[in-house]
């Protein structure tokens, strides 16, 4: 691996711990104005100090994120479909590699839909993206997206993750499942988990803890952070698990403490 590629990966997966907390806010690329992301700039800003990288589309990056920020960017470069379609797999590469360079992306991200109608198209797109990104030393994060009709078990997620790595992805993002060790151990590159649908905060922290214990190098989490009643509390708690090996109870206390502090500040503000 060349120096630029390694350096970009080191900006995302922190060398001090070998772990990462990526904040995913790219949901609008097929979901439109997702709950918690109606005003993405407002959602993102307070979370940036606690994120190791920010995953988003070029439209939200250009319009909502201060270019003076030093957060590493994971640029989503696939799309072409919407939640109105039954089959979400009809994606292609939507952003050129030159644009990713211009936007100073530390990595580019694309979804693959293994087992879906457009499996071949998305896997060929991944391979093409790896070819192009390799030229500029930009790592590719493959998102093993799960179609509506597919199960999120170790067999399926392991298959999709391994194929992504075989085609050249430098990092694989998948979902947590029972037997996750089987998934992470069959992939020769770092794996991170998505959070998936919003869970009660403690459950999301348990999932994070289990994923790290089963070989994930971190999370690329969205809704379980920005849809929480305390997004800053949640990202701090997730961070404590990922980087410091905190237990679920300790992490949950971090979330609760932040939530209480915010509520107290709000009360003081109202009293003025
Ligand atoms: C969509 C994505 C999202 O970034 C991903 O789902 C992460 O967000 P969440 O934690 O909300 O699942 O890649 O395909």
CATH class: Alpha Beta
Task: Walk across the major sheet and give the strand order.
Answer: 1-2-3-6-7-8-9-10
- Tell me the CATH architecture: Alpha-Beta Barrel
Run of helices and strands: HEHHEHEEEHEHEHEHEHEHHH
Alpha carbon gyration radius: 18 Å
- Shape descriptor reads globular
CATH topology: TIM Barrel
Residues in β-strands, percent: 15-25%
Q: Considering DSSP H and I runs of 4 or more, what fraction of the residues is helical?
A: 40-55%
By CATH's scheme, which homologous superfamily applies?
Aldolase class I
Question: Can you characterise this structure?
Answer:
There is one protein chain. This protein is of the alpha/beta class and 272 residues long. The chain contains 12 helices and 10 strands. Helix 11 (231-244) runs antiparallel to helix 12. The protein is globular. The termini are far apart. The structure holds ribulose-5-phosphate.
Strands, helices and their partners?
Elements: H1 3-12, E1 20-24, H2 28-31, H3 40-44, E2 53-56, H4 58-64, E3 73-76, E4 78-79, E5 92-93, H5 97-102, E6 107-112, H6 119-136, E7 140-144, H7 154-166, E8 171-175, H8 180-185, E9 191-194, H9 201-213, E10 218-221, H10 223-226, H11 231-244, H12 248-271
Parallel strand pairs: 1-2, 1-10, 2-3, 3-6, 6-7, 7-8, 8-9, 9-10
Antiparallel strand pairs: 4-5
Helix pairs in contact: 9-11, 9-12, 11-12
Residues 24, 26-27, 55, 111, 143, 145, 194-196, 220-224 line the site of ribulose-5-phosphate (5RP).
């Amino acid at each position: 691996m060349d120096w630029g590629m390694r350096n970009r990966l080191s900006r995302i997966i922190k060398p001090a711990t070998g772990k990462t907390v990526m904040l995913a806010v790219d949901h609008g690329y097929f979901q439109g104005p997702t709950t918690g992301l109606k005003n993405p700039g407002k959602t993102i800003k307070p979370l940036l100090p606690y994120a190791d990288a920010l995953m988003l589309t070029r439209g939200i990056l250009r319009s909502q994120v201060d270019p003076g920020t030093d957060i590493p960017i994971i640029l989503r470069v696939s799309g072409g479909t919407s939640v109105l379609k039954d089959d979400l797999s009809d994606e292609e590469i939507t952003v050129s590699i030159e644009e990713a360079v211009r936007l100073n992306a530390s990595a580019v991200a694309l979804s693959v839909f293994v087992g879906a109608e457009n499996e071949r198209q998305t896997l060929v797109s991944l391979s093409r993206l790896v070819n192009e990104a390799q030229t500029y030393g930009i790592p590719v994060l493959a998102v093993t997206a799960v179609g509506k009709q597919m199960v999120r078990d170790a067999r399926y997620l392991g298959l999709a993750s391994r194929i992504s790595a075989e085609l050249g992805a430098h990092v694989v993002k998948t979902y947590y499942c029972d037997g996750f060790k089987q998934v992470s151990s069959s992939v020769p590159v770092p794996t991170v988990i998505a959070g998936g649908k919003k869970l009660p905060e403690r459950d999301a922290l348990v999932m994070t803890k289990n994923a790290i214990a089963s070989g994930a190098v971190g999370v690329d989490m969205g809704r379980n952070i920005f849809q929480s009643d305390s997004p800053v509390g949640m990202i701090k708690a997730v961070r404590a698990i990922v980087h410091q090996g905190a237990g679920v109870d300790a992490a949950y206390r971090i979330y609760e403490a932040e939530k209480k502090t915010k509520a107290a500040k709000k009360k003081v503000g109202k009293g003025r």
